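Need residues for this backbone.
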């Protein structure tokens, strides 16, 4: 088997408040990874990976839930589902200095 090259795109970067990121063109085979951290104590974050064919009506493809602390927490999933657009939506975040970064690999 040959070498497989994977490209990574940030969907959210160090986001500290709830809200959706910008829409991106979406390849059919991709993976999503969310990483979060606090500056002190415990926290939590919920990220919805959302997809659309028209950039207007967004559907939830999957949810990543993180338990945050001062050590980085990370989780993710992969999918083979052909949608035209994808975005990450940080729907909840808590904790002192909490922030989350979401990337997509394809």
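Answer:
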């Amino acid at each position: 088997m040959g070498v497989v090259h994977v490209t990574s795109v940030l969907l959210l970067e160090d986001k500290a408040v709830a809200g959706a990121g910008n829409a991106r063109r979406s390849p059919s085979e991709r993976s999503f990874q969310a990483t979060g951290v606090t500056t002190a104590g415990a926290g939590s974050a919920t990220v919805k990976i959302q997809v659309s064919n028209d950039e207007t009506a967004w559907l939830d493809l999957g949810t990543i839930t993180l338990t945050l602390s001062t050590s980085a927490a990370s989780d993710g999933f992969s999918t083979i589902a052909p949608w035209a657009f994808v975005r990450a939506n940080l729907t909840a975040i808590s904790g002192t200095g909490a922030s989350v970064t979401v990337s997509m690999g394809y």
